[in-house]
From TrEMBL:
Family listed: Belongs to the radical SAM superfamily. Anaerobic sulfatase-maturating enzyme family.
Protein name in UniProt: Radical SAM protein
Cofactor: [4Fe-4S] cluster
Pfam families in UniProt: Radical_SAM (PF04055)
Domain Radical SAM core: 107-282
Organism: Paenibacillus lutimineralis
Length: 500
């Protein structure tokens, strides 16, 4: 085995072809022959493949000389063969974790008054917990908060999750009031996600009385969309109640600079740009929303879709189609780019998704020589910044990882051995063989949440996720360079942003 790999990818904007080199992070403009030669070098180890390309000998010779000069001078196509990820040492983990938990997420209840058709907790979804009648009790919540108070820094995001957390509003209030007492010197901001249907006058009055509070509201769009997907237990639509709840929150939070609202709309298949346009028009029509309301769109996790429930025929997209049709594969991202083109600055729907990915490309490390060492993609250090506490007092990595190995509990705190074994060792052992020869390894945002099950990393699920990640990363390379070509001043905007 050689100690380096030819890693990179060719991509194209409307007018140009480019080559991205994984080892150095550099991007080069190419002509059509250079691009074909680079593609051939990336996909075939047979030098004769270049001679078979559909160009004249003179064209091939000239382009080959350019590529060889780049190999020589710019050190392209020489990414080191990685044998392991850069990870914290086992002995460092305790210190890293005890450096200060920034967010605790308490799962107040597993109950929900809605039965959204795409929800992972539907009874049909094997592999996830289902809706149950379990609430967190005060004793568990108190132990969790006592533990947090021993491991917190200057600031704490106290977050509530469910089910629908407002079902257990009494416990929410008790947790907030207790936290204020035991962490009186900590700057606490309260946040939670809600389906809006249980927002009452009593709820908004209490929330408005807090120093800082932000609420993420789940609202999928106009009545026809919301009422089709987000239904109550008896099957009726939730739009009217949700809008009523949202209006109450807006009124209660007005003139409160430290209170904020965000909206998340889940977009269901079949996907199209028109669908995102419809959502955008709807949210724009809510002229009573504060102008700074962050409205975000997200996809349903394809792996978890029950197509029958969603009322659409199963959409089979081949990898080939996924790789080549960005409006089919990533309509939210494609839509966001048109929004960037239209607006003076990036704002509104889909901004989070597109900004994070464009920023990753904008802020990539570019080096003269190929960089040694790779990090574990987009993975966090479990337990370091955030901690998810289940209704029964077990610790998980985050709210996106309801089915994943525990990393401790309220009785014993974070188990660093479990963190190391289940997350660093297992992820490294099962992923390095894929990542070490993946062109996207320096731009990849895959984390545990996308590939773990209760018993650890699910390799098949991860490979499927990797295919999507690579296709989408390539779309974003194209989008970023299209932006540079069309409106370079908009790329400057990224210099002021940081990846969260
Ligand atoms: S989403 Fe991924 S990176 Fe973020 S906390 Fe969860 S597991 Fe970690
Ligand atoms: S896409 Fe998959 S194989 Fe490629 S770097 Fe990311 S996690 Fe590794």
């Amino acid at each position: 085995m050689s100690d380096w790999e030819r890693l990179g990818t060719v991509f194209e904007t409307k007018n140009n072809k480019y080559f991205y080199d994984t080892g150095t992070g550099k991007v080069f403009l190419c002509d059509v022959v250079e691009s074909a030669i680079l593609e051939s070098l990336l996909t075939s180890s047979d030098p004769a493949a270049i001679a078979q390309l559909d160009f004249t000998d003179a064209e091939i010779e000239s382009a080959l000389n350019t590529v060889l000069a780049l190999v020589e001078q710019e050190k392209i196509l020489q990414a080191p063969s990685f044998q392991e990820f850069i990870t914290p040492k086992k002995s460092e983990l305790s210190d890293l974790i005890s450096a200060g938990i920034e967010q605790v997420i308490l799962e107040l209840t597993e109950k929900c008054n809605l039965r959204c058709k795409y929800c992972i907790y539907q009874d049909e979804n094997v592999g996830y917990r289902n809706f149950s009648k379990t609430d967190m009790d005060w004793e568990t919540a108190k132990k969790a908060l006592d533990y947090i108070s021993q491991n917190v820094g200057e600031n704490l995001a106290l977050t509530f999750y469910g089910g629908e957390p407002l079902i257990n509003f009494e416990l929410m209030k008790k947790c907030i009031e207790y936290s204020k007492v035991i962490m009186s010197d900590v700057n606490i901001s309260v946040s939670f996600t809600t389906n809006l249907t249980l927002v009452t006058d009593e709820v908004v009055e209490y929330l408005a009385s807090l120093d800082k509070c932000s609420v993420l509201c789940s609202l999928d769009g106009p009545k026809n969309i919301q009422d089709f997907y987000r239904v109550t237990v008896d099957g009726s639509g939730s739009f009217n109640r949700a809008i009523k709840g949202l209006r109450k929150l807006v009124e209660a939070f007005q003139d409160k600079p430290d209170h904020s609202l965000g909206i998340n709309a889940v977009v269901c298949p079949p996907y199209s740009m028109e669908k995102i346009d419809e959502l955008n028009d709807f949210f724009k029509s809510l002229d009573w929303l504060p102008p700074d309301t962050n409205i975000n769109c997200s996809y349903v996790d394809q792996g978890d879709i029950d197509w029958e429930q969603l009322g659409v025929p199963k959409q089979e997209i081949s990898l080939e189609e996924f790789n080549t049709n960005e409006e089919l594969a990533d309509p939210i991202g494609a839509w966001a780019l048109t929004a960037i083109d239209k607006d003076d600055e990036i704002k509104g729907m889909a901004q989070d998704i597109s900004q994070t990915k464009l920023l990753r490309i904008h802020n990539r490390v570019i080096t003269d020589e190929p960089t040694l060492g790779i990090h574990m993609n987009g993975c966090c250090i479990p337990g370091r910044r955030r901690l998810y506490v289940t209704t029964d007092g077990n610790f998980k990595v985050c709210e996106r990882m309801s089915n994943s190995p525990y990393i401790g509990d309220v009785e014993n705190g974070i188990d660093t051995e479990a963190v190391y074994r289940s997350y660093f060792e297992e992820y490294s052992n099962k992923s390095i063989k894929h990542c070490s020869n993946c062109w996207a390894v320096r731009l990849c945002g895959i984390c545990f949440a996308l590939c773990y099950q209760d018993d650890g990393l699910d390799e098949d699920k991860k490979v499927g996720t990797c295919n999507i990640e690579k296709a989408i990363t390539k779309f974003y390379l194209q989008r970023y360079h299209q932006l540079i070509e069309d409106t370079p001043e908009k790329v400057e905007y990224f210099n002021e942003l940081i990846i969260s």
